[in-house]
Amino acid sequence: MSVSGSDERQPGDDPEARHRARMQRRKAVVDARIAAATERRGVLLVLTGNGKGKSSSAFGMVARALGHGMHVGVVQFIKGKYATGEKAFFRRFPEVSYHVMGEGFTWETQDRERDVRAAAAAWEVAAGMLREPAYALVVLDELNIALRYDYLALDAVLEALRARPCAQHVVVTGRGAPAELIEAADTVTDMRVVKHAFEAGVRAQRGIEL
Question: What is the model's pTM?
Fold first, then answer.
């Protein structure tokens, strides 16, 4: 016998039906946005912020590009020539042109003129890649640091990025991305620190930081 306040479900109270209706509405919105995104061209991505993962994200995209049979160019600014897992791994692939051009972090070199020369040499290689349509993806790792310290002319970098082949994708990493580069980019991610093992005295680990 039914009484007032009974826990009998009404037709509209089915959780599964409500969930299905929500997902149908969401799918309609997503499908409409996908249908509206008809432009196909290379994109400029900027990965910045003080959090860990900027270069890691960029190298994830290198792996993704290789999975599609794309040719990739990598230029590492600032970082020294110490052994890293990404360098050891990606240099196995003939589709990747990998250049470590930095002399080390600024607190290691303690020589601005040397840093400027290294950045200029790295940019010469990078600029050549940005003129070459064969490179479907170009990663400019830690370029933001070179720009932040005025090792390179920002206007020249922006012009080369604008003039690159229309289908070429570029990923720029490093803390302190200049506002002009952020404005020029198609996608920008600012990585924020929540916690980092180094602050607790844990040294950099192979496979995680190196």
Answer: 0.84
